[in-house]
Design brief:
Largest sheet: 3 strands, antiparallel
Mean pLDDT: 77
Order of helices and strands: HEEHHHHHEHHEEHH
Number of helices: 10
Number of strands: 5
Structural class: alpha+beta
Radius of gyration: 37 Å
Shape: flat
Strand order of the largest sheet: 3-4-5
Helix content: 40-55%
Length: about 300
């Protein structure tokens, strides 16, 4: 990428142009010069360190000639420290339109192609197309210039992101026109069990495990534990949508994760089996059932 240094006159002209004040510079054809915000760039510099001092301005001193013989306060440089000076890089739009051609054969060209592929603006395999990559760059520069004219600083790279957010109709790939292919999206969601459903689950399982319904405090605690487990295990819906030149032609969706009904029931069973009364109830009910079977036996 070639370096471009603004002169004081160019910076002043750029500010006049995009702030809308005064008369902007004109191109040879009478068209106003467009400017593009290219980012903030820093350069190493030495920041002076000064001290405030007071001394008598003796005759012949050059500090303040008209105050000779009086005490004056002044700043004296006693050293410096390293620093970075940040400056806005504002360039003439026509001077940056050829950047993609200048990047060709360099890492910058490859990075621009990958950026556009990630944004969905081009098709796989088009990362090396000078024509396609340059077409996106021209539109990005145009958009960045319009933003700067409106008083907003948007780089061509950010402008490309905004172009991509316009939807499937904005596509530069070799397939032509709008997007053709499949796009996938994922969306997590949490299904919390309401208190009435939780009560039904717990009463049903405790009646089998302990021979009784849930107590109010047990139900309150179970709802809290159950909702925490559901929050920790969201359901993920993956949607695959197929497009043909920007028109949706089909798709499918799948759900994964989440807490199943069997999982909710198992949580109650595990808690019931951990209670001291579980063993006593199971032993009593098993003994009672065995005695009933013996009494009903014909032998």
């Amino acid at each position: 990428m070639s370096n471009w240094n603004d002169t004081a006159e160019a910076i002043a002209a750029s500010q006049t142009a995009w702030l809308g004040g005064g008369s902007a510079a004109l191109q040879s054809g009478g068209k106003p010069v467009e400017y593009v915000y290219y980012g903030d760039h820093g350069s190493s510099t030495r920041i002076p360190i000064t001290e405030t001092r007071t001394r008598r301005n003796v005759p012949g001193s050059t500090i303040i000639p008209e105050m000779q013989g009086k005490r004056v306060t002044y700043q004296k440089r006693v050293g410096d420290r390293p620093g970075v000076e940040m400056q806005e890089d504002i360039r003439i739009a026509d001077e940056v339109r050829g950047q993609v051609l200048a990047w060709h054969g360099t890492d910058a060209f490859g990075r621009w192609g990958k950026t556009l592929l990630d944004l969905g603006l081009i098709d796989p395999g088009d990362e090396g197309s000078v024509e396609i990559l340059d077409a996106v760059w021209q539109d990005s520069v145009d958009l960045a210039a319009r933003f700067l004219a409106a008083g907003k600083k948007v780089t061509p790279w950010k402008a490309a992101e905004l172009l991509a957010q316009g939807g499937g109709d904005r596509h530069y790939g070799s397939s032509g026109g709008a997007f053709t292919g499949t796009r996938s999206s994922t969306k997590p969601s949490v299904d919390l069990t309401d208190p009435l459903t939780a009560k039904a689950i717990m009463n049903d399982e405790l009646s089998r495990a302990l021979g009784r319904a849930a107590r109010p405090e047990e139900l309150t605690q179970f709802v809290q534990v159950l909702n925490a487990a559901e929050n920790a295990n969201p359901t993920v819906t993956t949607t695959n949508t197929r497009y043909d030149k920007g028109v949706e032609v089909g798709g499918s969706s799948t759900r994964s994760g989440g807490l199943t009904a069997a999982g909710r029931t198992q949580m109650v069973t595990d808690r019931a089996q951990a209670m001291p009364e579980y063993g006593a109830y199971q032993a009593a009910s098993t003994y009672f059932n065995a005695m009933t079977d013996a009494l009903n036996s014909p032998v």
